[in-house]
Amino acid sequence: MDKLLISGGVALVGEIPVSGAKNAALPLLCAALLTREPVTFTHVPHLNDIGTMLKLLAQMGVKVTREAEKLGAGDTVTLDASALDNPVAPYELVKTMRAAILVLGPLVARVGETKVSLPGGCAIGARPVDQHIKGLTAMGAEVAVEHGYVHARASRLKGARLFTDMVTVTGTENLMMAACLADGETVIENAAREPEVVDLATCLNAMGARISGAGSDVIRIQGVEFLHGATHRVMPDRIETGTYLCAVAATGGEVRLTGTSSAYLDAVIDKLMDAGCAIVGERDAIRLKAPPRLTAVSLRTAPYPAFPTDMQAQFMAINAVAEGTAVVRETIFENRFMHAVELIRLGADIKIDGNTAFVSGVARLEGATVMATDLRASASLVIAGLVAQGETVIERIYHLDRGYEGLDQKLAALGARVQRVK
Ligand code: UD1
């Protein structure tokens, strides 16, 4: 299994490109299930999760063509679901990537029947899919959970008024996709407002859907008989952007991230400025210059546009070496502090009480061997390793490969001493 070796203590300086967003690309690829015509996506990040999704779609009978571009430019992927003949998502694939649940809505809408494995729990919490099921049932689908699979059937879904009990990103995306082919109007209330939901709606509208309100908490979808092919460019990854901003900030460096936008990152940029960084948003880029030492910043995660849970671990790492004490509250997932114990192994001073972490900044961290537990936790360990004195070994980096395209090359381009070893 690959490991990452990091010799910390170098201020990161330079310019790197930001890749397409994993969390936008995954639902977009599933949207291709809604039509018999080919759909082409550009700027698709080269990531393990994308590979898993393409494998899943291919075994359903979708014709997949993938052309690799250079690092940061993303792949071009064309999906042709005209011969779809096996609308099943097996446990083996769903267990490695929960986002596979995103095939549920499109499949029941387009072919009238599907079996999708329940994702089960994951490192950061239970993560049920009851809201996806509740919404499809309200649209007239017959849904049964049998032998660990969600079995959904409907001759044609009917437009309905849907309300989700909590804000759910993939839940909103699943129901929005299903509603595109339903009979009549669907209204999703308490919808997720994440930019990835907007990117998906833009693509669906280009395919002939009639969606309005994406980006607000009420989305209206007028069902149509069929969707057609389209070409869509995946939006930039705001979490990758935020992760590199944090890495550079923690090391006291200076960076220009290209092919991205500060527009999706207000809450994160606000906190980095509170921490002492100077940040300038350009047309398609962001510049950051860090102070010699950051100031600790408290935060609370919540659905967009508030501070993203997917950036909580990275801020824990920068708070670990900042001046002062920060209070970090996680409100989305019940078990998302596993990076704290690993950061403590590097010398961080962190106390956990339920969903709250108290982080007192220390003057320096020291390199050690640590274990990555999930995608964003791994990113926080990389940031800590970049500032720690001596060598940090990060094990189980397959988590990083699920979500960060060319992480070691991009860090090396900024001057980091990183090495991937088999
Ligand atoms: C998406 C993102 C993930 C991010 C998360 C929160 C993708 C592929 N993944 O995950 O990176 O961390 O949003 O911003 O876009 N819940 C239920 N029942 C449901 C659905 C959700 O109880 O049916 C709960 C979850 O357990 C969690 C909360 O709602 O506590 C939010 O989860 P949700 O927004 O659905 O996360 P994902 O869409 O899985």
Q: Cofactors and ligands present?
A: uridine-diphosphate-N-acetylglucosamine
- Give the CA-CA distance, first to last residue: 6 Å
Number of E-type strands: 24
| Helix segment tally | 14
How many strands, which pairing sense, and closed or not: the largest β-sheet? 4 strands, mixed
Spatially, the strands of the biggest sheet line up as 22-23-1-24
**Shape from CA axes?**
globular
> Which regions are unreliable across 5 or more consecutive residues at pLDDT < 50?
none
Strand residue content:
25-35%
Class derived from helix and strand content: alpha/beta
What Rg do the Cα atoms give?
21 Å
Fraction of helical residues: 25-40%
Task: Give average pLDDT, whole number.
Answer: 95
Overview in brief:
The chain is of the alpha/beta class and 422 residues long. It has helices at 22-31, 48-59, 91-94, 104-111, 130-138, 169-180, 195-206, 238-250, 266-274, 312-320, 338-345, 375-387, 398-403, 407-413; strands spanning 3-7, 13-17, 39-44, 63-67, 75-80, 88-89, 113-117, 142-146, 149-153, 161-163, 185-189, 210-212, 218-222, 231-233, 254-258, 278-281, 285-289, 299-300, 325-329, 349-353, 356-360, 369-371, 391-395, 417-421.
Structure report:
By secondary structure, the protein is of the alpha/beta class. 31% of the residues lie in helices and 25% in strands. The protein contains 14 helices and 24 strands. It has helices spanning 22-31, 48-59, 91-94, 104-111, 130-138, 169-180, 195-206, 238-250, 266-274, 312-320, 338-345, 375-387, 398-403, 407-413; strands at 3-7, 13-17, 39-44, 63-67, 75-80, 88-89, 113-117, 142-146, 149-153, 161-163, 185-189, 210-212, 218-222, 231-233, 254-258, 278-281, 285-289, 299-300, 325-329, 349-353, 356-360, 369-371, 391-395, 417-421. Strands 22-23-1-24 form a four-stranded mixed β-sheet, covered by helices on one side. Helix 1 runs parallel beside helix 7, helix 8 packs parallel to helix 12 (375-387) and helix 10 (312-320) packs parallel to helix 12 (375-387). It starts with a strand and ends with a strand.
